Amino acid sequence: MTPKVAIVTYSMYGHIDALAVSIKAGIEEAGGKAVHYRVRETLPEGVLELMHAPPKPDLPLITPDELAKFDAFLLGIPARHGSMPAQWKAFWDSTGKLWQSGGLWGKYAGIFVSSGGLGGGQESTVISTLSTLVHHGIIYVPLGYKTSFAIQANVDIVRGGSPWGAGTFAGAGGSRKPNEQELELAKIQGSSFYLTIENVTF
Ligand SMILES: Cc1cc2nc3c(=O)[nH]c(=O)nc-3n(C[C@H](O)[C@H](O)[C@H](O)COP(=O)(O)O)c2cc1C
Questions:
Q1: Which residue among 77, 105, 136, 192 is least enclosed by CB atoms within 10 Å?
Q2: Which positions fall inside the Flavodoxin-like domain (predicted)?
Q3: So where are the chain's domains?
């Protein structure tokens, strides 16, 4: 049966959501389909205004019950002090029933990230999220190098992402946009992820 894939993101300024578009294109290129959800905002309106956050995109909100309907997930996570933001943590903290029942056990997940800058914790954001996956029994699918060696080996261009997953840099003040290499890496992650899970029996 064709695996059901959800792309789930939290994105304050749109960088993660821009990568999500490429991730989805990659999944579709590989013959799959994905539904894009967003994680519920937890900050008050006034704080979001002070942070110059734009209005949220028109995406369905993820809930634990909705997540459990999918076989595999691609999780878009912007760095906060080198790990996941409180909005993502609040979502995972609401999955106690699924954790107890093993409702996500044996499903698959890949992770893509964004950070302000180089050394800002792209890899640590993925690695620290693995603890959540492990406790749920979710199988982590890395990007690796095989399908994106040329992009990852090129150190002449400033680029986010790593074998842990695609990534982009927002820059100081968030004004930088994902570049061609970052969007391509995200697309490759989408297609590689789908090709990894397409023959798994769920
Ligand atoms: C409270 C806070 C903590 C942050 N911590 C980090 C960090 O540890 N490293 C980093 O490079 N950027 C950090 N940033 C910048 C965000 O990672 C950046 O705004 C985000 O990746 C942009 O993605 P988005 O547009 O999808 O929200 C932080 C931003 C905020 C508001």
A1: 105
A2: 5-193
A3: 5-197
